[in-house]
Hints:
- This protein has about 575 residues and is of the alpha/beta class.
- It has two domains: about 55-300, Alpha-Beta Complex (2-enoyl-CoA Hydratase, Chain A, domain 1), CATH 3.90.226; about 325-475 and about 535-550, 2-enoyl-CoA Hydratase, Chain A, domain 1 (Alpha-Beta Complex), CATH 3.90.226.10.
- Helices cover about 45% and strands about 15% of the residues.
- It has 22 helices and 17 strands.
- It has helices at about 5-20, 30-45, 50-80, 90-95, 155-170, 190-205, 225-230, 250-255, 260-265, 270-275, 285-300, 325, 335-345, 390-405, 420-425, 430-440, 455-460, 485-495, 495-500, 505-520, 520-525, 540-550, and strands at about 105, 130-135, 140-145, 175-180, 215, 220, 235-240, 245, 280, 350-355, 360-370, 370-380, 410-415, 445-455, 470-475, 480, 535.
- Strands 10, 11, 12, 13, 14, 15, 16 and 17 form an eight-stranded mixed beta sheet that branches. Strands 1-2-3-4-5-7-9 form a seven-stranded mixed beta sheet, sandwiched between helices. Strands 6-8 form a two-stranded parallel sheet.
- α5 packs parallel to α6, α14 runs parallel beside α16 (about 430-440) and α18 crosses α20 (about 505-520).
Amino acid sequence: MVRELPVGVTKMRGAAKRRRGVEPEAGAASAASLAAAAHQADDESATGGVSASAAAPRERQERARHEREARFEAAREAAPHLRGAELSARARLEQLFDGGTFVEIDAHIQHRSRHFGMADKPYPGDGVITGFGEIDGRTVYAFAQDRAVLGGSLGEAHAQKIVKVMDMAGRGGCPLVCINDSGGARIQEGIEGLAGYGEVFRRNVRFSGVIPQISLIMGPCAGGAVYSPALTDFVVMVAEKSYMFVTGPKVVRAVTTEDVTAEDLGGGRVHAEKSGVAHFLAHNEFEALELTRQILGYLPANNCESPHFVANDDPPSRRIPELARLVPEQSNRPYDVADIINLVVDEGTFLEVRALFAPNVRVGFARLGGYSVGIVANNPAVLAGVLDINASRKAARFVRTCDAFGVPIITLVDVPGFLPGREQEHAGIIDHGAKLAFAYCEATVPKLSVILRKAYGGAYIVLASKTVGGDINFAWPRAEIAVMGASGAVEILYAKELKDHADPVARMAELAADYNARFATPAIAEARGFIDAVIDPAETRYALYRALRAVAGKREEMPAKKHGNISL
């Protein structure tokens, strides 16, 4: 028997195919909404900014945040202190949503277990609170596990409540927020708890790329439970209060004799810095809940809608004369690309994702002229901005997330290539680098790029170059685009001459300068059509804004297939 998908999901999938260009009218609705917002942005820009229309919403947002913070402090004082939790499960949901909008469902469902004395312990709600509310006026579904009831353990009824709210979110085309705080499967119920996890995983996958799914880890998350957060779009952990691991410290000690604490094994900082499982590390529960609201602000409610346009008072045409000074002329001098990003995008809008993991590439959401965009940027301050395994994984995942939800991608390129060495080769840099190439080639959202200083070899190709589907590619006048750096190229091309020369160092400098002038200049790439324009660095913001407007209605047909076979 073939099981039919819920009607809402079927419609969303059909619309998603149209948006990707499978049908002739692809992208029309998205283009229309973006164009309407663009006219508003043009009107605002012509008057020197959006002082009246943008300042008021920003002030309201600040007031609302202060009110939520006050509400959080009051709830924290009133909450029973249970093993380090700052808020109860219910208070977490009420804090997440706009004030007074949370509606609970299935509040009186109870477990059906009769073993180990459970028949005499009915718990209304069965250790998880589910429902829906509003975040900035948009409907969002959520559940919060309650560690005060049976340790938040997942049993049959507990799982059914979670699965029900996930199905409602999927059918309604609304984001889903999952607040995890559980000791794992309920031992008293056995196989029913394990089966419940399978049902949750299946819906995580079914709605992946359909609705945004965000997991907050507010306490323990161990064993099979860890795979549900890992299947969602973003994971937010709280420092020193949450942890995730497949096997806990006791099992590790029994099997390997290694003594390790829960924090060292799977704490928030470990997953934010080393594994990359955590996309965000919050200092407390308030910050984690605020981050969740902020993330959702850059994303549409589902894959059939466009991200919201948010007016602000930062004119798209703003010149940035200091950009050229921030990037050193010498290609091997470091600088932090975050300084470039924050100047180019709308003021104060850059939200970095996985900031502590693989910092040689920075990724995150921002706004440009009010439009939501995804940023991918090499960071020469760390490892010269080289692409290694972790950087490739990080960037590829972010590109695919942006593509799933229709967020245009802007790539700022300053890369010497992929990191060489035996360790990287043996660990699979080929496979991981291929993930990044696959992500960019597969993405059908608008893809813009700017080569800031250098772009060498395969790393140049995979980072939104024209040949992997870049829509509009810019370069700064001093950009170097080549198979490799001038020094390396000269050592290969003129090896015999340098060996026999009386002053090989001086001769090599001459040949390197000549190589750069003849082959590494952006003028050559521009003449071949691989670069659309060489731009004044001060005009980068406006050039990107106009390019984004130009490709907003992009339509791209993809071959019919079940799915691609990305190198995993």
